[in-house]
Amino acid sequence: MAKIQLTDVSVDYPIQHLQNRSFIGAMKDAAVGGTIKVGKTVYIRALDGISFELKDGDRLGLLGRNGAGKTTLLKTMAGILPPVEGRVRVEGRISPLISMMLGLDSEASGYENIRIRGRLMGFRDEQIEAITAEVAAFTELEDYLHLPLKTYSSGMRARLTFGASTAFKPEILILDEWLGTGDIEFRNKAAKHLLSLIDSAGIFVFATHSRDLHKRISNKGAVLNKGRVLFFGDIEDAFEFQDSLTKG
Known about the structure:
38% of the residues lie in helices and 28% in strands. The chain is α/β, with parallel strands linked by helices. The protein has a domain at 3-93 and 207-247: P-loop containing nucleotide triphosphate hydrolases (Rossmann fold), CATH 3.40.50. The N and C termini lie far apart (40 Å).
């Protein structure tokens, strides 16, 4: 059974060597991505006191304008960013489709990077070997898989990282925005594969500005603003709450 529980979770981004007080004041007035705190160190509180729980069957859509904290929340749920306060408890294997190039080696071949991605996701070598041929076939990169990643175009990298990151069926799937790279044929193929993964996952969490996608996939919504969750509940109610903020 999959489960995610956040209890009073806060995340800070320290800003080193920032001393100009007038600039700090301007940042405070303009900041949309969190609350700026000034002490011995200047830092942004990117997430502030977030608490909610997800269980099997939940499809959570994160709503909010750019800088509201959606990506930070996804990374915190995925274990990429540790909270400075509070607790994140996760039951089930997570597949985070966030910063998919993170940890890959531009000098290594495509095949080697499939192994690197598998290890980063916590799989054993024999498990990775079992799916390597399937990943290779999905990417359609053929002999390029023997070449270093640095020789790939951006579209080829998208094929490799998506194929390797979605090779295993996760219990918890976390996605930052829908697919936007690669040629249209591959995007359609990847979208079909991704929808299959969403159907099979226990929990799915994603951020997008597309309400059409949320209506198709999400059954719950969380509205974020300046690092805080202002609303958590049914997705349609989340839309109404978000609209009330805009009107207000």
